[in-house]
Amino acid sequence: MPATNEQLSKYEKIEAIVKGFKLPAAAYKRAMTLLNQELNNGLKSQKSNATVLSMFPTFVRSTPDGSEKGEFLALDLGGTNFRVLLVRLNGQEIDIQSKTYLIPQTIMLGTGTQLFDHIAECIGKFVAEHDLISHQLPLGFTFSFPCHQEGLAKAKLSHWTKGFRCEGVVGEDICQLLHEALKRRTNCKVEIVAVVNDAVGTLMSAAHGDRNCEIGIILGTGCNACYMERLDNVHTWNKEEKDFQPKQVIINTEWGAFGDNGCLDFMRTEFDREVDTFSVNPSKQTHEKMISGMYMGEIVRLVLERLTHDQLLFRSVDRECALFERGRFYTKYVSEIESDTDEFFRHTKQVLDDMQVENYTTEDCKIVKYVCTLVSARAAFLAAAGLSTLINRLNKQDMTIAVDGSLYRFHPRFHNLMCLKIKELVKPGLKFRLSLSHDGSGKGAALTAAVSLRLRNLKNVEENGFTQPEMVSVKA
Ligand code: ADP
Ligand code: MG
């Protein structure tokens, strides 16, 4: 059926509003060039204020080689759930038991002491429930906030993100805070061996079964990536340590902050700016806000609000309805809406009912889905551009990228969209694979602890010709 003039002009008006999300390949290529510059800036020794990416050396020097063994505790803080895990490693056999605990909002916004006491109490309970009180347990701590690491088990919080704001923690060593809380609140024998963020855990977990895996990315509440860099390129690394093999270290890019100096403004829309203005951290995490699950639903909601306001969508909507409430349109709705493949729009209608929109038409459903596809595709393409930058940089024939996070896991098109874009953006001939990493923050943290015990041993043998007994992996 040919479109009427009225419809045509309506579609033109909609296009004018959403066109900022439809970026040409050249825009993503420009973002890649800029990102590569920022990666280099962040690795320079003389850090200037112009440095946007933290590029933290993580002190993780090797991915697992499969020989890791023993019984480990892991902690996962900084995601949606706080978990304590018991991880038993034996070659490729891995047994994980875990329990999720709640962190009440009052603690998320309370003092650091309250937070770490709460964590220690949860560990104490977990260890008691698993009959491990007398066991010597090395612990890998997944702490998914930007930290300046001074050692594998020494990490100073740079700033809070993702809704946490506990007083007295910024600038402090979170291992020390946890260590003290464990002493105060429990009687278990836990040694904190490694702190990693979720991106590093994800990489370590996937690398356990795949030697080609050297990049990790998180697409969940936040967005971040890490990769294995040659020490020669890491000018912030202590010289003496350079002689100790292996000559590489995993870098936590903290690329969520890419664009915080304005360099991505050319690809931001008015909706991105509004999301930023009303966030808890205005003008921070620019790149993350265009990609991750914490913000995608809200971007979609703002576009729908604008279209409604301009009378291009929904005939009559109550001003009080949920569609006009900040934060009320969840990113999981985007996945649900995009999973509709026929003209019945079953999921879309459910979401619109949930948003208290009345009297919507099939055409409205189409427009809502169209907006979702544009916003999610831009996010997937931007993540792909970031990964392509890293793939080109590492320049290996075959590269596996470990991916974790609910956005990637559950969005029906994210994986395919990312693959499509990466193929377009990487150097010809380089092969890649996106691999969903399982339990990066549990298994990955335990593996990091295990690898570090293995390397500690190696270093002792190299330097002193002996193996220190307490460095041997602990087994019940
Ligand atoms: P975290 O990153 O906090 O460890 P997740 O990986 O589970 O946790 O990511 C949580 C984020 O994923 C939230 O922002 C949420 O909006 C988003 N999310 C949850 N379910 C879905 C889904 N089905 N589709 C897309 N995004 C989702
Ligand atoms: Mg997570």
TrEMBL record:
Enzyme class at the top of the EC tree: transferase
InterPro entries listed in its UniProt record: ATPase_NBD, Hexokinase, Hexokinase_C, Hexokinase_N
Pfam family membership, one: Hexokinase_1
Pathway: Carbohydrate metabolism; hexose metabolism; Carbohydrate degradation; glycolysis; D-glyceraldehyde 3-phosphate and glycerone phosphate from D-glucose: step 1/4
Entry EC no(s): 2.7.1.-
UniProt KW keywords: ATP-binding, Glycolysis, Kinase, Nucleotide-binding, Transferase
Domain Hexokinase C-terminal: from-to ranges: 214-451
PANTHER family listed in its UniProt record: HEXOKINASE, HEXOKINASE TYPE 1-RELATED
Family: Belongs to the hexokinase family.
Protein name: Phosphotransferase
